[in-house]
Amino acid sequence: MINKIFSKIPRKHSKSGGEPSLSSSSSTSSKKSEGGNKRLSSAVDDVITAQFSVLSVGNNAEDRFLRDRNLRGDVNIASASYEALPSFRDVPNSEKQLLFIRKLKMCCVEFDFTDPTKNLKEKEIKRQTLLESVEYLTSASGKFSENVMQEAVKMVSSNIFREFTPQPRENKLVDGVDLEEEEPAMDPAWSHLQVVYEFLLRFVASPETDPKIGKRYVDHSFVLKLLGLFDSEDPREREYLKTILHRIYGKFMVHRPFIRKSINNVFYHFVFETEKHNGISEFLEVLGSIINGFALPLKEEHKLFLVRTLIPLHKPKCLGMYHQQLSYCITQFVEKDCKLADIIIRGLIKYCPVTNSSKEVLFLNELEEVLDATQAPEFQRCMVPLFHQISRSLNSLHFQVAERALFLWNNDHVENLIKQNRKVILPIIFPALEKNARHHWNQAVHSLTLNVRKFFYDLDAELFKACQNKFQVDEAKEDDMRERRETTWKRLEQVAANNEAILVP
């Protein structure tokens, strides 16, 4: 009787139109959770019962299960019993949702992908089943039942939630910014993980997923584990996670405060403890969209997030890995509320690097973007400390830093702000301009400095001459001080040579 049933089972696999698109590759590794063999055996039991219950005839199809365990045998359970379920095209519409649930249970079975020669048939069956489930999820009509949502989240959780094996990160940072170029180790399980992520993305985005019911399963625990996966070293996985998190934030409004708070905690741990995390840029991309949607006036909670979280993110040495996304978030705050410009500029000055030239160039780039959205009243509050910092950058011996600081005068909005406040700004930066014009080693910096000096002279010749006279007086005083210091040292050297004691005023 059993042989007759097997002979009638159609062995068809639905052909997929192709795999979901890939982004750039990187290395990641996974560790099997404890009890994997027990879970495999249990899931195989479900798979076998599912196959025959779908094919049963009559009103009690769900209750008719195969009881004969002798079919499974005692050796290689997965190979003996992990067989493909019928295609959705081969069952009536009334049975499709039941078949979908059983396919989800079937996909909960885990395989060892570290051995490419092991369970090849079963792995391909699972992959095809995942692709069929994604296709069904996309074309399904009618709200998903609570049972479907529960099994969908269970299947996703069993596949993607795992512990990462920490990779050695020594010698990966060069000058605190650039990563060494190295060939990434491809995750052998990605062909399955990718389809699971595509399934989760479409499940969350589907209009048939009711958020009122779905929030019971896509809960705080699920979201927290999802955020933990952002530390994956595989950029393809982080790209999917970024999109999925954004969809969850948009669909499940009840989770929004929890998501923001949890991301805050990741940032705090990164900035003040480890300075090691692979997903900071992806988190910031999600936050950029969230900040863009903040209602006006901004809540105090969001302003505290700016001051306590975003601005301190300028501190880590690996700023270059996520600076573009961070700069976008900062600029969004200025565009939302121009009064925050003073706080942001002072924060940038606080974390401005002293010995890291490449990081200082990034700061100057961001500073120009912030100044471009800054209004005159806020500019006047912070212009004194700001141009003291710019003056130090102008005198940098690293030509890219000095050149980038001089490029600020190419921005029309910044130039207008400087024009309006030239009586305060020019006396601060004039010494730096004069020193560059006299003896900066780089010709490009020298030429740009002369252009800025000409700009101020044409703008206000009287002020320029006054600053020049003051600089000459200060320079004479400095020369006199230097001579007196040298004379004093010579006297001390003579006294030391004669072994005499003398009181130096």
UniProtKB/TrEMBL annotation:
InterPro entries assigned: ARM-like, ARM-type_fold, PP2A_B56
Keyword annotations: Cytoplasm
rRNA-binding in keyword set: no
Any GO BP annotation: signal transduction
Compartmental location: Cytoplasm
Broad class of the protein's primary localization: cytoplasm
Record-level Gene Ontology MF annotations: protein phosphatase regulator activity
Source species, domain of life: Eukaryota
A Pfam entry, by short name: B56
Start-end of Low complexity biased regions: 17-30
Region of interest (Disordered), residue spans: 1-40
The UniProt record lists the keyword Cytoplasm: yes
GO cellular component: cytoplasm; protein phosphatase type 2A complex
Function: The B regulatory subunit might modulate substrate selectivity and catalytic activity, and also might direct the localization of the catalytic enzyme to a particular subcellular compartment.
The family this protein is said to belong to: Belongs to the phosphatase 2A regulatory subunit B56 family.
Record-given protein name: Serine/threonine protein phosphatase 2A regulatory subunit
Protein's organism: Salvia splendens (Scarlet sage)
Biological classification of the source: Eukaryota, Viridiplantae, Streptophyta, Embryophyta, Tracheophyta
